[in-house]
Amino acid sequence: MTLRLALASWLAAAWAAAGENAGALSPPEDWPRWAGPKGDCTSEERGLLREWPKEGPPILWRRPVGAGSNHPSVAGDDLCYAQLEDNQTKESVKCIDAGTGKDTWSYSYDVPPIWHVGWGELGVRATPTLTDQHVFEIGTFGDAFCFERKTGAVVWRHGFKEESPYLNGSLKGGGNLEWKGFNGSLVPMGDKIPYFYWQGGNPAIPAWAKTDVSNKMQFFAYDAHTGKVAWKFEEDCSPGCRGPGLIAGGGLAITFRNEDCLVVHGNRQWKILRLADGKQVWSWECSGPNEAPAWACGGLRRVGPNLYLDSLNGWIPSLVECDFGQPDPKPRILWTTDGIHEAVTPPVIWEGCIYGFYIDSRGEAADLGAKPGEQNYSFRCSDLRTGKLLWKEQGFHLGLSITAADGLLFIHDHQRLTLVEASPAAYVQKGRIERLHALTNLGRNSHRGLLDWSMPVISRGRLFVRTPVEIICYDIRDPKAR
């Protein structure tokens, strides 16, 4: 069975375009996975409010939540999210009614103390993935689950931490000083769930640290029906090579030489792995020493016919032209610029423009969690084909994300939500909600302020925003368009 047919039967999904990440074939009003139906932070919804009243759009419901940096996922009447409970000894996966905010089902499990990972106060990182029948989720410590979507019954559970000795190091209890937990969402592609690991070679690990990890890059595929390992790709890392990002999780799905494959960025290369067995069938060296894709940028993304956006040199985005329809592709870098900084959230591509953020005060912003209220970021619009900066607007806070729909940009930064018109001409603000929450205990030793980076979710005329303390559901339908 080809990947496309397998997706139809297992995920009810298919490629949004040739060579693009798998997107659910659920109605366009759903937002069933991280970064939306196509994994690109956009929604196909129309008929949304073009401008907000001073107090913001009407609130349909609001619900208290525990710590979690994942955004909700919505399909039909179901909204799912995960959280660290207030007692900090359990994590929970919850399903609620998207229309009312009332409970449908909940599942909790024990976890080690949060100080076993960096930024423990962020809670659960990964966003749930909803398919027709199932919910897939992975916790901070690698507790992976498949649930029945209707009832919450556990279909399978597997400890992903078992596959990586790096995550079983002796530093900082059962984790590692630099390990920030499992970030990548579980997104099935056919009957496989691809997932990155990387171990060793981290320059942030002190030389005196006694670890038994080797300097390896690993890429796994798990069986989506059972959670068991289907195959593993592994190779030695070059000296000084840093690890790949984990938020996007499983790489970019393509058809290459008439086979279903994945493009991944690791060990300073683009690699094509065959989805059936994990065999590498092509590679391209694209990064220099001590450089890797930005850890939270969303990874390699298709942004047009034979066009791909990636952070080839650490934090600096690049546009690459590559025809994977050829038996031996010859990638060509069209431009590289640091004008759009992807360290916190993926940029949005809308009608030939890149909308994203840049750290204007890198020294202050690098002290994550110390001053989450500082306005160190500018929101920027650049031309996709050239990388040229078209305009910028300063004054955005640490902890931010962006979603696009109906020609509008929804920006979530610390304690506020902003509506902006998607325009290459200028920054045009169409609404802003201040003081989404009153949480102010974000001192130097707290990272809770970073929880305000949760991506705004749009589904069936509703806007769902997760703050450090609650989920708020807004009605953003335009009454004139109903």
List the helices and strands and how they pair.
Blueprint: H1 3-10, E1 13-15, E2 22-24, E3 42-43, E4 59-64, E5 73-75, E6 78-84, E7 90-97, E8 103-110, E9 129-130, E10 134-138, E11 143-148, E12 154-159, E13 192-199, E14 216-223, E15 229-236, E16 252-256, E17 259-266, E18 269-274, E19 280-285, E20 301-304, E21 307-313, E22 316-321, E23 332-336, E24 348-350, E25 353-359, H2 362-365, E26 377-383, E27 389-396, E28 400-405, E29 408-413, E30 416-421, E31 428-433, E32 457-459, E33 462-466, E34 470-475
Description of the structure:
- The structure is a single chain.
- The chain has 2 helices and 34 strands.
- The chain is an all-beta fold and 482 residues long.
- A hairpin with a 3-residue loop joins strand 9 and strand 10.
- It has a single domain, classed as Quinoprotein alcohol dehydrogenase-like superfamily (Methanol Dehydrogenase, Chain A).
- The N terminus is likely disordered.
Task: Provide a quick synopsis of the model.
With 482 residues, the protein is mostly beta strands. The protein contains two helices and 34 strands.
